[in-house]
User: Fold Energy-dependent translational throttle protein EttA from Meiothermus luteus.
Amino acid sequence: MRIVLAEDLELTLGGRELLRGVSLELRHGDRLALVGANGAGKTSLLRLLAGELEPTAGRIQRAEGVHLELLPQDPQYGPNDTVESVLKRGFARIQAMEAELAWLEAHLADPGVYQRWEALHERYEAIGGYQQRSRYEAVLKGLRLEGREGEKAAVLSGGEARRLALGALLLSGADALLLDEPTNHLDLGMVNWLVNFLQAYGGAVVVVSHDRQFLDQVTERVAWLRRGSLKLYEGNYTAFRRERALQEEQEAREYAGWLKEKERREGILEQAQRWAHSSAKHARRLHSLEARIERHLQEAAKAPEAEEPAVRMRFPLERPATAERVLEGWELQKTLGERRLFYIPHLLVRRGERIAIIGPNGAGKTTLLRVLLGLLPSDHPAGRVRVGPGVRIGYYDQKLSGFDPELTLFETLYRMLGEKAHAALGAWRFPYEAQFKQVKHLSGGERARLALLSLSLQQASLLVLDEPTNHLDLETVEALEQALLAYPGTLLLVSHDLAFLDRLATRTWHLYGGQLADYPGPPSEYLERRQAEGVPGRPERPVSRVEPQNPRPPRAKGRWHLEREKERLEAEIAELEAQIQAVLAKANTPGLHHSEYARIAQEQSQLEAALEQAYSRWAEVVEGLEGS
Assistant:
């Protein structure tokens, strides 16, 4: 079913032409990645589709009754909004559809009513109408908002407010979810949950993201927005990059061949021109050659389009530190309220190591970095940190602090580089006119590039990067990745971008529940090994274990009882899955009376609710077994 059709869209904002001749169709089940450089117009296109902007020219047709929901960049909540009320806003839309379905079912005898019921029922199923209650519970757990339903939304932190907005969008009952950087402020566990949610969602999904692995997992087509035009590619982001590389190579070959043939023909023509006056025969040959070269010029191969200027990113290090022990800490401990974030008796970072720090939001990754850097003290009286001799530290703070918001970009860089400021800003993709914007008016991507540019000037032998890919477009993430691969110093990296970490890290620290696991390999390898060993929630090889301040009471059930319950639940889950398949097969029976569809859909909903409940209890039992 078609949701929206955009035809020949043009958009001009602030005197700048963002879109020209853009056309796009979205149908239920579509999975689209929208990619392009920062400033290409991706967010503006999403706002056009959602109806928040009107095009300068062209038209957008939305099917009757459909709703598209756009993830806000900076969600705002009223003083009476709670976590629960925000999440349940979409319930009214679902309930209205249920009421209309009920009315239509009561009038199926009327001509044409069944077609309306069938179309509405298809939409209702696609957006998860039958699973709305179970999805509400899943969103609470998946985005870690469970138990906070009564909290005021207006007092949430920026990251929590953004997660709440994402949860509300997922439960909005929308026919198309327009996701603008949905993985910002999500940890790896939340990202994995979101992937599973979107894969099961029946409506359309359009995603703008700098996380390449996330795009590969949730999208099946790519829309490339470049210089105002949109071009579609089949396959995920990796397939798109591969196809683009092949296209560019083919275009370059064809153009080089055309140029070579042009030069050959021009050489022959030049010789013929010298001989043309000697005889009528040579004159006639000259006319023939001129006609041929004219045809060749008219059939010119398309010259390869110049790519957008990439950020020329480098982190030079003229004098690498010679100290083998770059950073070392003893008795590192931090407590948040009554909860101990971590206690680590000893940590050592050696020269040349590239360490990824992963863990759920709130586990203390940024706090650990700040303790290691001496920006926060250890709560342990014997806590101390030692930096190796000659080691110079460069720190990328995800809050992007340290800049005077009143200064312009140029003034900021002039203080660092003098007359070289313009050239440096240009190399980092700041156009000349943008160099006179005040720091406080920079976009998220511009602020991130400014912070990285400043970092590149520090000659640091240890780079500590806390979420460096947030706010960057894919091209800039890849440029940062290449620059860090070439960097000869030591790296400490915090990021939720697993593809980014896997390319760069040779060692993984997993901070989870007060423990720190230390693994001699990249994060994906570590996570796969944990999963293979059947310990999804517990890190291996703990460097330290925090003992709870208040010991838990003895478990109500012993291990033997939990094992038997686990076996029973697995059998129940298998049976429920088989019943759901049987119901789906029944729905495909030829000649089935239309009155049966509603009953079958209701039966499917009840079975899926039971399956969700069984899965939830199974997860609790597995967690109990792991802790016993």
